[in-house]
Design a protein that fits this description.
The complex is a heterodimer of chains A (316) and B (286). Chain A contains 9 helices and 14 strands. With 316 residues, chain A is an alpha/beta fold. In chain A, helix 4 links the parallel strand 9 and strand 10. Chain A is globular and about 65 Å long. With 286 residues, chain B is an alpha/beta fold. The longest helix of chain B has 15 residues. Classes of the chains: A alpha/beta (316), B alpha/beta (286).
Chain lengths: 316, 286
């Protein structure tokens, strides 16, 4: 049987499939064996208590959904005492996702959550709901460098940075995160979107705008994973619209070392296990011994453009 | 899998079940009855008030994307048989209504909590309107099987919309039908009817589903009957249906004594059944 083990920096995962933050909680233990997942990524916590956004918080889109949950949070102490412990009873690395409003708040929160039971810190510097008009740290290389370097100074834990597909120059943002000391990139998050009910003329989300996720955004996420892979040396974790084993392979070929599965779990709470099972079938069928060998192995013909130009010149 | 604790567990396990359509027919102009059969023991694992998320067939390649939460109307007698009764309203239920007998659909569940019910009760009162009757139908069966007397107030637009047979399914009950068409479903008339029945019958419990107006009326009336408990099955826009995404929250006041304790609860996980007294009403955001 093929080895599904992958490495993300110094962290080894039993397989490349983990849930995406925000789309995973302890309740999925009714539908999944947490000892079989690559990692457990818990919903983002913010140091400030938040009630979350007004309802409706979710609406449907073509091949996807829009959400504006607003990261409800009861603060770090409640998280440490009540949210985190149930996840640490498994033989699976726990990833704590953190979100905050300012650089200092971010660095303090990461320092506080760098606990022995926590394998990895994921800094969610990208959630589009956080600040007015969807603006977030990961929108520019400058703000990314500032917040990531501040966090790096405060933790020696493996530390992943979750980027946003809403950034216009993703290679620059990815490089800024790498230079500032991130151990890996998670590419990416939801795409800022909007939907209106044409009969009532009301926005379909209480927060007006929200994040688009699901298969609808997969090509965008895949493209950005590839752009990140080409511009940095640290591992890239792919995220965006993955709902099958083939999708996972596609992201790994584009450059991902591991992946996160989000919205697909909402359609089938057992989706992640089915995807992991599907990877074993893929490896058996394709004669892949080590799934980690797939990373970045998209078959690119770098001379194709030149050949085409010479070929096309014949047309006069 | 079943050893994990630290959260409100509503089911031994939740899974996506491939079902075959056994029966699918119109009950009246707006409602359809659907019977599915699965390989799993849905009858043994599903409690009254619980719901499933239905993967409605596509009306085209792109939608509907999300599953549709739907109360269980009945289970059994076979282990794999589950029934739904639904109102054809949006794209999800429209797509569902085209499902042919012999076709297939995936359903995820069982989800949500159950009605509080004690077989030692003497009498219960159920107040149903619209699709709420489907949600409470399993409770009616449970009460009848335990020999508990059932007092039912059923509310509908007009007599042709009343689904008394579908609600009781052969169970004996003291039924009071009220209609919009003759004014008997007005707040004033129902208020008086409820008070008269509470005074005369002294039910142990009042249950309702299907109307926010009726819910608020019962909350008001029950304030004068502190010894009678009340429960309501609620709805909210959902995505995951399992308590993960936090989409379907509503505000509740879980007060103890005089002190207020308002919090957002997930309709899919802490509910869909809540105490009528805890509902923080009127404010509707969508």
């Amino acid at each position: 049987m093929a080895s599904l083990n992958v490495r993300v920096g110094e962290v080894t995962l039993r397989n490349p499939v983990m849930p995406a933050s925000g789309c995973f909680a302890i309740e999925y233990s009714e539908a999944l064996d947490f000892n079989k997942l690559g990692a457990l990524v818990i919903k983002s916590v913010s140091p400030k208590c938040r009630a979350g956004n007004p309802t409706p918080r979710v609406t449907e889109a073509y091949s996807g959904m829009l959400n504006s949950i607003g990261i409800p949070s009861k603060g770090l102490q409640h998280y440490r005492e009540s949210v985190l412990p149930p996840y640490t009873q498994f033989d699976t690395p726990v990833v704590v996702s953190i979100s905050a409003d300012t650089v200092d708040e971010f660095a303090d929160a990461v320092a506080e959550m760098s606990l022995p039971d926590v394998a990895v810190i994921e800094a969610n510097i990208s959630c589009p709901n956080l600040e007015a008009d969807g603006m977030a740290f990961a929108m520019t290389p400058e703000t990314t460098y500032k917040v990531v370097s501040a966090i790096r100074r405060r933790t020696s834990h493996p530390f992943w940075v979750k980027l946003t597909p809403n950034a216009s120059h993703i290679a620059g943002v990815a490089k800024a995160a790498e230079e500032a000391g991130a151990d890996a990139l998670v590419m990416g998050n939801t795409v800022l979107g909007m939907s209106i009910d044409v009969r009532t003329r009301k926005p379909k989300l209480g927060n007006v705008m929200g994040g688009l996720s699901g298969p609808a955004i997969k090509p965008i996420a895949l493209r950005m994973v590839h752009q990140c892979y080409r511009s940095v040396r640290i591992p890239v974790i792919g995220c965006g619209g993955i709902s099958s084993a083939d999708d996972v392979v596609e992201f790994m070929l584009a450059g991902a070392s591991a992946v996160q599965v989000g919205t697909a779990s909402f359609v089938d709470p057992g989706a992640i296990q089915k995807i992991i099972d599907g990877l074993e079938h893929y490896c058996a069928e394709m004669g892949v011994d080590n799934i980690r060998d797939l990373t970045g192995q998209v078959n690119l013909d770098r001379q194709l453009s030149d050949r085409w130009l010479r070929f096309a010149q014949q047309s006069g | 899998m079943s050893t994990v604790t630290g959260f409100q567990r509503n089911a031994e396990s939740v899974a996506s079940h491939r079902c075959e359509v056994a029966v699918h027919r119109w009950v009246n102009k707006r409602y359809k009855y659907l019977r599915l059969t699965a390989q799993a023991d849905l009858t043994g694992s599903t409690k009254p008030g619980q719901f499933y998320q239905l993967k409605c067939p596509g009306i085209n390649d792109l939608q509907p994307f999300l599953l549709r939460p739907m109360s269980v109307y009945g289970v059994g007698p076979d282990a794999g048989t589950i029934e739904f009764l639904y109102n054809v309203t949006g794209i999800g239920t429209q797509a569902l209504s085209d499902l042919k007998v012999g076709g297939h659909m995936d359903i995820v569940g069982p989800l949500g909590n159950t009605f509080a019910f004690d077989p030692g009760y003497k009498r219960i009162m159920v107040v149903a309107r619209g699709v709420g009757l489907a949600t409470m139908a399993p409770l009616v069966q449970q009460a009848a099987a335990a020999g508990v007397k059932i007092i039912a107030i059923m509310s509908a637009r007009a007599s042709q919309d009343m689904m008394q047979g579908e609600f009781l399914r052969g169970v004996d009950a003291d039924v009071h039908c009220v209609y919009d068409s003759d004014g008997s479903s007005s707040v004033g008339a129902v208020d008086a009817l409820v008070r008269r029945l509470l005074d005369n019958e002294q039910p142990d419990m009042v249950y309702t589903c299907g109307s926010h107006r009726v819910l608020m009326l019962l909350q008001r009336v029950l304030a004068d009957y502190p010894q009678i408990r009340g429960e309501v099955a609620m709805e909210q826009r959902m995505a995951c249906g399992m308590g993960v995404c936090l989409s379907c929250v509503r505000l509740f006041d879980c007060k103890t004594g005089q002190s207020s304790d308002k919090k957002f609860l997930r309709v899919c996980r802490e509910g869909p059944v809540f105490s009528i007294r805890d509902v923080v009403g009127e404010v509707e955001f969508g």
